[in-house]
Amino acid sequence: MHKLERLLHPRTIAVFGGAQAAAVVAQSIKMGFAGEIWPVHPTKEGVAGRKAYRSVAELPGAPDAAFVGVNRHLTIEVVKALAERDAGGAVCFAAGFLETEAYDEHGERLQAELVAAAGQMPIIGPNCYGLINYADGALLWPDQHGGIRLAEGGRGVAIITQSSNIAINMTMQKRGLPIAFLMTAGNQAQTGLSEMALGLIEDDRVTSLGLHIEAFDSVAGFERLAARARELKKPIIAMKVGRSEQARQATVSHTASLAGSDAASGAFLKRLGIARVDSIPAFIEALKLLHVTGPLPGYRLSSMSCSGGEASVMADSAEGRWVNFPALTDTHHTHVKSTLGPLVAVANPLDYHTFIWNNEPAMTATFTAMVSGGFDLNMLVLDFPRPDRCSDTDWWATLRAFESALKTNKAQGAIVSSLPENLPEEYTAGLMARGMVPLFGISEAMDAAQAAAFIGWAWRQPQAQPIDTSASGAPAGDHVTPDEAEAKARLIEAGLAVPRGERAGNAVEAVISSMALGFPVALKALGVTHKSELGAVRLNLRDAESVSTAAHDLAPLGTGLYVERMVRDGVAELLVGFTRDPMFGAVMTLGTGGVLVELLRDSVTLMLPATRDDIEAALRGLKLFPLLEGYRGRPRADVAAAIDAIAGIAAFVQENAGEIEELDINPLIVCTEGNGAWIADALLVLGEKKNV
Description:
- There is one protein chain.
- By secondary structure, the chain is of the alpha/beta class.
- Strands 9-8-11-10-12-13-14 form a seven-stranded mixed sheet, sandwiched between helices. Strands 24, 25, 26, 27, 28 and 29 form a six-stranded antiparallel sheet that branches. It has a five-stranded parallel sheet with strand order 2-1-5-6-7, sandwiched between helices.
- It is flat.
- It starts with a helix and ends in a 6-residue tail after the last strand.
């Protein structure tokens, strides 16, 4: 039994506090909770018609769940008493704990005392609203909400948020999303979001899971959650905040959470097969689609509408996404064309025109022909007229035709409204029962389709190995930045491909070294971080005189000189960077390199360890990759050598994870096939050595 089992599915509920506690009692009664509710109050005889008790000791038994709605100091006392009574768990409503550490010296201490008081008893929060179990009608919730209880035998999604207000707002949605459970995580003082999620997905009435994440409670916890969700075939959607600096700062003041690097968070979710969306509407629509269809087998979509304008908007909405509207094959095109008049141009997205509007047999024939193309999701764009001024009688023939087409082809389908308000909530349950997912808004529908397709793709891949978090934790103390000569010496010692180079103290030594290395050479000023910006590097020096001149120019800029053989036959330049994330350890950034790296912003983030397949997939995702394959007749690059080099650099970072704070290889020059990939520049930042 999961440790949250009693809390999530209580048969007895104890409630502590004043107005909020009374609301909890009233809400559970209103929802039809069949178990016992035991209010605890020092003076009241009863709360909402239920007998009140004076203390935990007076309760008839050990409650499965408790809502603790008293001040922060008393919360600790109540939690301790509940733990000693062997209660199943408690929701801690009060704020004023670790989230106030910036302005209240007692918050951190009180949160530690709360966790100690709970012992082995699970607690949710503090600083949270709690739990709504719509499946059983059990509410540990001190406010109004907009949800309804699931019907007997019904199923729905589970949602966990780190914001109580966002949770309330989600219950107020009018988009037809059936919710089985809603939880808020608060400060995650003892029980983290991943542990709550693991408890929820075990319930057979839960179809999929949505997470609003300010910060991850545990890398290992999320890895366990993702593995179990995959095993149970219950997909997960995440809305991870923290893209902006303001958002990261807000999470600290909200729940004392550290949002961390957004790029690393995105890479982590992708590795786990958890789809990420960026807005609350997309979150709702993606959950709804997954509730009905589950993950999609691919990215191929079809769209039908009786408007060329809508067809154009649908086509544009797929631009830049993985989901797409593939062109019809000749056979399929002919089949669809045979059901329509000569004036209709057949394409995907399809504008079937108004010629067949409200002609149910004709629409059924066209829709059936279109859906027969084996698409992963078929969309019918349909906005209903407003009922207070218009009639929607003619719309139902269209729905029946689409339903018939889906059943004939055993296909997945969605009704997409261009405006959210043009799809009445009262129609949504019936549409889903008939196999048509109601999706509100074209952009949100595309977000949902992409999320469902991504999860389908991720689940077809081998499960990723656990992340190496050996370098996680607080940053090391003082940082040391070896110069390029020393950094490259370490890379050479690790067996990595670095051009031959020598340190030089003056112009004469630079000339001697260049003659020994062989022309052409590169000459650099040591001790300079961004050499190109300061003019501290000279390339393609082909004779002693040019080396001497360059050495006299560069010597005043740094702490010495470094002479290096030029890399020849370069096709492209890559950036291979590593930083130490406090949550995830060493994180790799792979992208287009050179002096325009910040401007081009063509990069991808990977967790470690990264397989060769991971690295190759990342390379193929770069805008630069066609250049590596021989763009427009240019020479092909040594991609295999590039992958070897990147994998070797990543291994070097992992082997020295406790010491390396940052490693920036820019550029890694990828040469023509057979000529390798070479580390042309390296910036290494070291911290205090920790168990290397």
